[in-house]
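Letters spell out the chain; backbone shape is given numerically. Take this protein:
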Amino acid sequence: MDAFIDYNTQLLTKESVDLVIKGRTKLHQGRLPVTTVDYHKTINMKGIRHFPSPRLTIMMLTKPTGLNGLAGFNITSFSIRLIPEPDGANMVGTIYIPNPSVMTITMGNVTFNNYVDGDFIGTSTLSDLVLRPGNNTLPMRSTVNQTLVIGKVTGTYKDGLLPVDIVGNSSVYDGQHLEYFEKALQSNRQHIVLNVGAALAAVTGGGGAGETE
């Protein structure tokens, strides 16, 4: 499990990842004799090297593209609910997560902890998260301490631009915590600036939905 956790952490935070395949199997085609195949080397995903003899050593060096720390992660729009919705969400919006890898990653229900100046302000949830290769635009639901946020906006951040640190918390699929994803998410911190002033103005009749800057 530790090795798989480390792999997922590297996959999430690095631009590329070295993968070593090691093992042995049997290859049998029609009436040809059974051939032993050894997998024990770092090999390139561009292909499999030449088979030199009936006993094959397949040397594949794969350096798959990683998620590069979720570079480009952003909350593209959001709105505030003064009265929480039935699930407790009082902020809903859209989140953008690029996946530069060739892998489709199913992570289940993923939650993030949100902080401003080190103060915990609430959680955000992405339900049934599947990161497909390319650009992913997904619905986000958050439960936020609005009193604390308004205090930040009326105090230190009078321009309404709130610097938010977002850290992965949990990944749950079919009721089971996926520790190998959770450890990777918890190791990665995103920083964005939310235009909370615009979102607050929207619910008081003074403007549109919030955006990131």
Residues 31 and 203 are 74 Å apart (CA to CA). The radius of gyration is 23 Å.
